[in-house]
Amino acid sequence: MPTARENSEKFSYYYKSEKGLNRQAVLEIAQQKNEPGWMIDFRLKALEIFEQKPMPQWGADLSALDPNDIYYYVRPLEQQHSSWDKIPSNIKKTFDKLGIPQAEQTMLAGVGAQFESEIVYKKLKKEWADQGVVFTDLNQALIEYPELVKKYFATVISAHDNKFAALNSAVWSGGSFVYVPENVKIDLPLQAYFRINSASMGQFERTLIIAQPGSFVHYVEGCSAPIYRTSSLHSAVVEIVAHERAHVRYTTIQNWAPNVYNLVTKRAIAHAGAHVEWVDGNFGSKVTMKYPCIVLQGEHAKGEIISIAVAGKGQQQDSGGKIIHCAPHTSSTIVAKSISKDGGQASYRGLLKIVKGAHSSKSKVQCEALLFDEQSRSDTYPTVDVREEDVDIGHEASVSSIDEEQLLYAMSRGLTQHQARAMIVNGFIDAFVQLLPMEYAVEINRLIEHEMEGSIG
């Protein structure tokens, strides 16, 4: 994941909508995809919901975001490919720089690459396809697996959920559809990479993961965009259904440019004995509002959310997590760490809810913030709603600053000030990095180093 830079390369797109959002714009997206009537109706209803819901007045400042100054659909190619050789050279060059083709060969079970509004490349290794695993984009799944999509689509996150979930529901395009059959355990990650490349672009991928009983899948998404003077919008929806004893890990490593509004809704349903993990790395963006959620629906279900947010100059990282215990003997952990520097603002916003009847549940929430200077800010907004007496819960929060003695000691051993700060920060986020495959852990360390040098845009 290289540092985001100003984009100077020109692209010729197969189709590009006019700016602005209205009924005709939504119909054009559906027509470009030749969608069935039920999906068109779903989109139009979602547009009505979006128009009726007010902009959020809590969290990060969205006052400068103009929904009518956005391109809602940009189709780079007429069709997607399963061979990198067939991708136009100017688009392929972008993914080459990110190392996606090389990663596919050595450490991934499958790869999807989205450029603007559509997936341009998708491929699953034959070993997993032969076992019944499905890894495609949601548009293609709607054609090839219509009954399966209709059964699960918008059952975890409805268009009524919030204003930007409604927006995604109206204009969604691309994303991933993952189906893992019973007792199939994929031992390498699946990765999707999402790239916004145009100015004033909106990217609205929608991902649906269905893990059947006893299965395992690790899905990794990466995100980036070049720097422009005008704002872009990323508003994704991710739905996960983990059936009995299934294990799903969803890892996000985003490196958005500082002109991107990143407004995302992610939620998982964990049935009896299921285990769901959100591993969430938030770098870059102008504004991020993202609170991955796990609903522990069945007994002995387990949920874990581990996140790191880095807020630099002019950035608001408003992130956190939600865990809802709906059944007895469920357990959860939220570990949220934030770093604020150069006047950046990082906020933890979380929910821990234990409903009546979810006895013998356990949960622990841990929030830690690291401040680099007096101009930076960290806030914590926890909500704890417990309706059952027989539970074990804990919540702790702490704020600290860079220790000058640690810096001086590291510098006395030959490190520069930037290197010393990066070393301290890497220790601070160690719990997050330990959950990543080694190659991704290396990339996170590089991102941290860039952040300490102020070179991530």
Q: Supply the number of helical segments.
A: 12
Q: What helical percentage do the residues reach?
A: 10-25%
Q: What kind of assembly state do the chains in view correspond to?
A: single chain
Mean pLDDT: 83
Structural class: alpha/beta
Q: What share of residues are in beta strands?
A: 35-45%
Count the beta strands.
24
- What is the gyration radius calculated from CA atoms? 21 Å
Biggest sheet descriptor: 12 strands, mixed
Indicate the low-confidence ranges by residue numbers. 1-9, 78-82
The overall number of domains is: 2
Distance between the termini: 12 Å
The gross shape turns out to be globular
Describe this entry's structure for a reader.
With 457 residues, this protein is α/β, with parallel strands linked by helices. The protein has 2 domains: 15-290, no CATH class; 408-457, no CATH class. The chain is 25% helix and 37% strand. The chain is built from 12 helices and 24 strands. The chain has helices at residues 23-33, 37-52, 89-98, 100-107, 126-129, 138-144, 146-152, 163-171, 404-412, 417-428, 430-433, 438-453, and strands at residues 15-16, 74-75, 110-115, 118-124, 134-136, 177-180, 190-195, 202-203, 206-211, 216-224, 232-234, 237-242, 247-256, 260-270, 275-284, 287-290, 293-296, 302-311, 316-325, 331-340, 345-354, 361-371, 377-386, 391-401. The strands form 3 sheets. Strands 5, 6, 8, 9, 11, 12, 14, 16, 17, 19, 21 and 23 form a 12-stranded mixed β-sheet that branches. A 10-stranded mixed β-sheet has the order 4-3-7-10-13-15-18-20-22-24. The longest helix has 16 residues, at 37-52. The protein is globular. The two termini are 12 Å apart. Residues 1-9 and 78-82 have low confidence and may be disordered.
